[in-house]
Write a structure and sequence with these properties.
mainly alpha; 2 domains; 4 helices
Length: 112
Amino acid sequence: MHGNPTGRAPSGTSPRNEPASPGERSLRARLAAHALHAQRDAYETTAKGRAAFLARFEREVDPDGVLEPEERHRRAEQARRAYFARLSLAAAKVRRAKNDASGKRSRSGKAA
């Protein structure tokens, strides 16, 4: 392969220069993730992302930066918990709507 010092096919294409299927791309990505986590600590590789995610909540609860760091962190943690509770509620509503649409019965045995 000229111009490719690694000798590997560019990502998204197969060795025969055919576009990779979505399933093949998914498998390649999964393989790369497993290889990465075999070499490095997952907690370290995701530290920057987690910090940015938590900083979002700190900016949300204290946009002007006037709170003490401990109070800002406490409020940010509560905002983070509210965020995930909101996601859980939305997921429960979607599940209920799917069950209602398909005519499945609820756990009580009554028609949903």
